[in-house]
Structure formats: structure tokens, C-alpha cells
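Methods — Computational structure assignment.
A single polypeptide chain was analysed. Its primary sequence is given first, followed by the predicted tertiary structure written as C-alpha cells.
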Amino acid sequence: MRSASMFSYNLSLAIQSFKRAPTLYFLIMLTLSIGVGVLCANLALVNSMASNPIPEKSDTLIHISMNTWPEDNPPDEQPLYILRYRDAMKISESGIGIRSAVFYASGVYARDAESKSMKRFDSAVRATTPGFFKLSNAPFAYGSAFEKSHGMEIVIGDELNQKIFAGENSVGKVLELDGELLTIVGVLKPWTLRPLFYHATDGHAFSLTDDIYAPLETAMDLNWSIHARSSSTDNYTHVAQTRDRDVYYLQAWLELPSSNDRQALQSYLDNYSKSLKVAGQHPLAIRNELHDVTEWLVVNKVVDHKILAFTLASILFLFVCVFNASSLLLSRFHAAKFEVGLRRALGASNRHMLMQGLTESVLLGLFTGIVSLLLSWLFLKLSVSFLPDLANIAILEPKVLLLGMLIALLTSVASALYPLYRANRYTISAELK
């Protein structure tokens, strides 16, 4: 009861102190808020970059890179993360693991085939084998995945469904995609992956999930162009021709629930490469690499070192803000020496003075936290306006908000420690002199 009354008393003194010097405390709050806000904005970006997009499977989903380039002058460092059609199919048919996904990125213009409007929507396409959906835990709102790599069936994402069908159940509807008619068999729920682990290459790590998912063989037969990196030693005029040519553009993932499966896959790939070498089709040294989701994101340097450097600079900037806030508070305590001395002459101990100062700094920290989070949101919006590629990762998640409030409280208390120490070092006679 006594503790509650003392807290109430200290709180009323803190409010009175704010009222007596509102401009000074506003400057202190603004100084700390800018420092905390800039740091939280950077922490939000780092949090999105370094987050685990699929924690329940991150150690069982394996990306495959191979160096089956048919000549002794590969296009870049080996092995390649993109594969030929026949190599990818060999992996898909291995029977190792519980499911596989082979895909490439494309794009089409989409419209409702029954609409009178000719408006079309530029749509990102993932041409894939059916195993992609269960492998990536794609969440379905309506319908289900297509079951074969051939067929005029598609799955669409929530955003495209909102644009064309106002978010309604569109299973059974027909979309016209670059002049071809394909039937919707499934619609996904809103689905965000940060980072986009299944396409972390080519600068797509922070892209949105795709608008349309189409059977791989169908996309190839329809000549839907390759919208990601590709390398080739052969010429081709139609994507379907890549089935039997040295054209590298497909990515392959397998879901391997045990370490034994990973070892089995490594042996399978090495033996396959040896068979190519025996046939004279593999001039390079055999090198096949497997990476789980976490390893793959590290390999692709998804966490931008520039953002990390700027975050470090933000921490240093925050220290400067704390120093400036401490200087302002020191001037405030110095100006209030007479008040401090009077209270101590009336019996207030150093402990009471310390508790009153800490109550004031905590209250200031709460105000600072609220303002700093608003500034963080503003800084992120400004960042996106200058760098649109950051839009999908400029997110203030709850844990970042809580961390921001904690940092605001800590910096507010830290900025008050030295002024409180100085205030408690004054002698009563000097204060009342």
C-alpha cells in the first residue's frame, strides 16, 4: 500500500516536472525518439531479411545445385543453381524423399474469360510440378492443387483472385492467359514468405509470392517465356525445345525428412554425374551441392551487408541521441538544484530522489516509445518510396514493436542515470546556498 502511494506521489511529481519545462522534455523525447525510430526501422528490415520463412521445414527442404555444364567453360562459378530439363527430371524421378518440386518463373497477362472487359493483369507465373504446393505448405482458401504436370489447370494467388473475382470462390472459372484458356482448380489464401526461399536468387528473395501456378509441362508447351536466369549452349525458339537441349533454367527442391535421405540423394547425384562423365557428357569435376532453406539463404546473401552496416550506424547514432538527451536532463537538474535541496532538507533521501527521477524517466520512455514507433513506420514508408524493392520486408512485426518500446525505456533511463547521480552528489548546503 505504501509502495503504491509512493509511486503515485512520484508519478504526480513527474507530471508536474513535465508541465514546468514542456519544451525541454519535448526536445529530450524527440531526440530519443529519432534515435530509437531509425534503429527500429533498420531492425525491422534485418528481421524480415533474417527470418525463417518456413520454420517447420527449413531443415528438410533441400535445394539442388549441379555442375553438368557440357563444356569446359562454365558461365560462372560451379555448380549452377539452375538445371537442365533432363537433369531436373532425373532428380524428380529419383524416389528419394517424400516430394519434389521442379519449376521456373514466367509471366502472362490474365483476364476473366467471361468478362466483357478486355482489361488484363500482368501476372507472375510459377510453372511447376504438382509437388510444389505440399512442399512449400501453400495455404488453400478454395479448391486444391493440380495433380499432373500436364493439363489446362491452374492455381491462383489471393491477390489476383481479389483483382479479377473480388476475392470470391473462383474454382471452376476460366482465365484467358496470353490467349490460352485455363481453368482454376485452386485459390490460395493470402500467402507471404519472407524471404521467398524457393526463389531467393536473381534478386527475388523479397518478391511477393506468385499470382499463378501452372503445370510445368503445360507452360513449356504453351511457350511461356523464362523470366529468371537461364544459360544455354544451344539455340532454341520455343521453350518446349529445351527438353532435349542444354538449356539451364529450372530449379529443383526435394523434401527429405531424414539425414539418411540427404546422404542418399548426394550419392544418387554423384552416381548420375559419373554416368554422364563416362558417356563423355560431363567434362567438369563432379560437384553437386545440397542446401537446406537456411543454408540456401546464407549462400545467396539474403541479409544485405549494407543494411547491417546501416544498423550499426543507427546504434551509434542512438548513443549520440542518449548523450544529447542526458545533457539536456543534466541542465534540467542543474536548474532545479534549489527544488532538489529543499526536498532533501525536508527529509527526502537519496533513494527517494533516485526513485522519483527513475519514475520520471520511465514515464518519458513510454512517451518516447510511442513516438519512436510512429517514426519507425514513417521511416519505413520513406524507405519504400525510394527503394520499392523493400516493400515486402518493410514490416513492423509485433516483436519489433515490443523491442522498440523496450529500447525506448532503456535509453530514457540510461539518459537520466548520470544527471540523477550528479543531483544526488550535491550537498544540501550547496543546493540551498
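Note: Residues 350-386 form the longest helix (37 residues).
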